[in-house]
Amino acid sequence: MDARAWLKQRAALVDGFLEQRLPSASEPPAALHAAMRHLVFPGGKRLRPAFVFAGCEAAGATPELALPAAAAVELVHTYSLIHDDLPCMDDDAVRRGRPTVHIAYGEANAVLAGDALLAFAFELLADAEGACGAAAVAACTRTLAIAAGSRQLVGGQADDLVFAAGGPATLARVESVHRRKSAALISASVVCGARIAGADRELLAQLAAFGEEVGVAFQIADDVLDADRNEACSSVAVLGLPAARARAEVLLASAQERIDGLGEKGAALRMLAELAVRRDG
Ligand code: GRG
């Protein structure tokens, strides 16, 4: 199947689920609920949910089983983008070609919308107990909570914010931020999908390592696409464009090698990894 068509089909699954489950924009407090929906719809590439589905497939289950986990991961991602755009962080007025949430709904609603989306992500996961089993839900909750926490996503963001003041930029420092801020959630996505399919410890470790390498390569691709922003914490800043591109390819190849043994079950993961790293937007 064509990779983009595959991704679009998976995105439609998540969109439908989120459309049904998120509070409507008219439910009071209406400004808050409208702010929550503002960045969820029409949404972005929906890569992380696709990694959840692909992780589930890699461990041998039908991907639809992982739908609540896929939606939960996308909401954690969405919350992080809303907060990242705030004036106290990156101070961005535009995301995905539209006004950011604080521009459209005010700063307080943007903070609250992010908070509520993070909480709702875990509500969706908890509700999946009947379909996925209590053990799988508990394991996914833990995986996602760790990836979203101060040792991963939030900690990476904290270090990114003070990166320039923290000493000389080195590849090790940049990739430490990339691993936490970006790769942790991608790795957790693959792992959650596999957990729902009942993967054993060995496969989970293999997929976590795959996800981390793909995640860092994905972030390098992002640095390359944003090269003209001259950010301090960027692989382009420490390596230059050609070497940054080459580093992403090395990581992608290493990640792909890790899942060679999965055969056909790993096809979706392999396709998605390529799409995430060799993208043009
Ligand atoms: C504020 C808690 C907190 C965390 C912020 C996500 C993030 C950390 C910052 C956003 C800026 C950034 C460059 C993050 C790295 C991850 C990344 C490249 C996000 C964009 O992901 P895509 O390309 O976005 O999947 P779409 O729009 O397709 O969903």
Defining traits:
single chain; 281 residues; two-stranded antiparallel sheet; 1% strand; binds geranylgeranyl diphosphate
Structural features, described:
The chain is globular, with a radius of gyration of 18 Å. It has helices at residues 3-21, 30-40, 47-58, 67-84, 101-105, 107-127, 129-132, 134-148, 153-161, 171-196, 201-225, 235-239, 241-258, 267-277; strands at residues 94-95, 98-99. The protein starts with a helix and ends with a helix. Strand 1 (94-95) and strand 2 form a beta hairpin. 71% of the residues lie in helices and 1% in strands. Geranylgeranyl diphosphate binds next to helix 4, helix 9, helix 10 and helix 11.
Sheet with the most strands?
2 strands, antiparallel
Structural class: mainly alpha
User: In total, how many beta strands?
Assistant: 2
Total of helices: 14
Strand order of the largest sheet: 1-2
H-E order: HHHHEEHHHHHHHHHH
Q: Note the beta-strand portion.
A: under 5%
Give a concise summary:
The chain has 281 residues and is mostly helical. The protein is built from 14 helices and 2 strands. The protein starts with a helix and ends with a helix.
